[in-house]
Design brief:
The chain is α+β, with helices and mostly antiparallel strands and about 120 residues long. It has 2 helices and 5 strands, in the order αββαβββ. The longest helix has 9 residues, at about 75-85.
């Protein structure tokens, strides 16, 4: 158990421990306006414009823009953070629900508040 009483777990290949909603290390949770992914098919908006390719997709939690990850040649999700100042993204990959704060450099999962009993 962590010192905050939450059970940590690791994402496959992720170096950081991840905790539930209310992450103590992220001060930008209030900027979350978009949590649901758009309907498929998904693609990096900027790569589609230039005929680029991507490895994985990320979605901006503030405006919903879909961009490619840092393993992709153009790194459009990070470029969007630098251009727009939107600090939070989530994975747009099937089966992945983690989020990342560029400013605080912390990964986290959002609690599902739509689940019964919440």
């Amino acid at each position: 158990m962590s010192k905050r009483g939450q059970r940590p777990f690791r994402l496959s290949g992720a170096p950081e421990l991840i905790y539930g909603c209310g992450v103590a290390g992220c001060s930008h949770l209030s900027s979350i306006h978009v949590t649901e992914l758009p309907p498929p098919p998904l693609g990096c908006e900027e790569c589609v414009k230039i005929g680029g390719r991507w490895v994985h997709l990320r979605m901006c939690h503030e405006c919903g823009k879909i961009g490619c990850c840092d393993n992709s040649p153009n790194r459009h999700a990070t470029a969007h953070f630098h251009e727009a100042g939107h600090p939070l993204i989530r994975s747009a990959e099937p089966g992945e629900e983690w989020s990342w704060c560029y400013v605080d450099e912390v990964a986290f999962l959002l609690e599902d508040t739509s689940a019964p009993g919440r």
